Amino acid sequence: MRHLLSIADLGADGIEEILRLTDSFVEVSARNIPKVPVLRGKTVVSLFYEDSTRTRLSFEAAAKRLSADTMTFSVGTSSVKKGESVRDTLQTIEAMGVDAIVVRHGSAGVPVQVARWGTSAVINAGDGWHEHPTQALLDCYTIRQRLGSLAGRSIAIVGDIKHSRVARSDVLAFTALGAEVTLVAPPTLLPPSLDGWPVKVSHDLDAVLPTTDVAYLLRMQQERMTEALVPSLREYSTCYGMTSARADRLADTSLIMHPGPMNRGVEIAAEVADRPNATVVDQVRNGVPVRMAVLFLLLGSGSTLYDPVPDPATPDDETEHDEHGSAGA
Amino acid sequence: MSPDDIQRAVWRMAHEIIEHNHGLENVVLIGLQTGGVPLAGLLAEDLRQIDDIELPFGSLDVAFYRDDIGLRPILPEAVTDIPFDLSGKIVVLVDDVLFTGRTIRAALDALTDFGRPRSVQLAVMIDRGHRELPIRPDYVGKNLPTRRDEVVNVGPLGVELGETRK
Question: For chain B, which residues score pLDDT lower than 50?
Answer without folding.
Answer: 166
